[in-house]
Structures are given as C-alpha cells and as structure tokens.
User: Which sequence fits this backbone?
C-alpha cells in the first residue's frame, strides 16, 4: 500500500501497479535529494538572504 497526499486530500493506493509507480517515483526523488547536512545549509542560506 501507498499513501498519496495532496493539498486538499489524501488517498490510499493499493493497486500493485500504482504502488510500484509510487515507489519508483519516491526512489527517483530520494536519489535527487541533497544529503541532510547540505539541505540544512541550503535552507539556512535561503533564510539569511530573505
């Protein structure tokens, strides 16, 4: 099962193909994400600029 959350509602996904698509999408996003220390550094820099 997977859970998809949007701005106005959430949805449980239980179709095997859709769960696999959600898993692959999550894995792709995780692979593109910064490591936690660099992410925190980026947020700090953004706050300091604003």
Assistant:
């Amino acid at each position: 099962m997977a859970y998809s959350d949007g701005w106005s509602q959430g949805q449980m996904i239980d179709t095997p193909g859709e769960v696999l698509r959600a898993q692959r999408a999550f894995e792709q996003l995780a692979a593109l994400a910064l490591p936690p220390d660099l992410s925190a550094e980026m947020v700090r820099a953004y706050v300091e600029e604003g």
Q: What stands out?
A: The longest strand covers residues 2-5. The chain has one domain: 2-49. The chain is about 60% helix and 15% strand. Residues 2-49 form one domain.
